[in-house]
Amino acid sequence: MRTGRQPGRPAVARRWTQVLGAALVLATACGCASLSSRQDAAAATALRFEGALAGQDNAALCAALAPGTRQELEDTAKSDCAQAIASSDLPKTSGVRRVDVYGRQARVVLDGDTLFLSTFSDGWKITAAGCEPRPRRPYNCEIKGG
Prior knowledge:
The protein is of the alpha+beta class.
């Protein structure tokens, strides 16, 4: 029985259409944004965190922390987040020097501090702060999640 189609060609075209359609759905579903917009959003979160630190706005600092980081801070200090963050030794700094985004994770290097962030349903959150690099070893962070 002859259908008038060339063998193989329509199947390839249909397959590419399915692949491209799936990619479009995936990109839309995950809310993927361009690298530069994700870098900008991570940098803005870091600067808001630093602004809250400079203004001693402990509620804003706690709100900026990832849930696991906030819990780890409270557990370690044996107090609520606002009290624990007030007694932390976070450096006051400003000015973004570098932003690296890797999927859902980011590192924001500021003048005098490095912050690590992760994306959540409500945006970027701080997973570690007050971080200092150590040669050939992981960063040493004042505040970090478990």
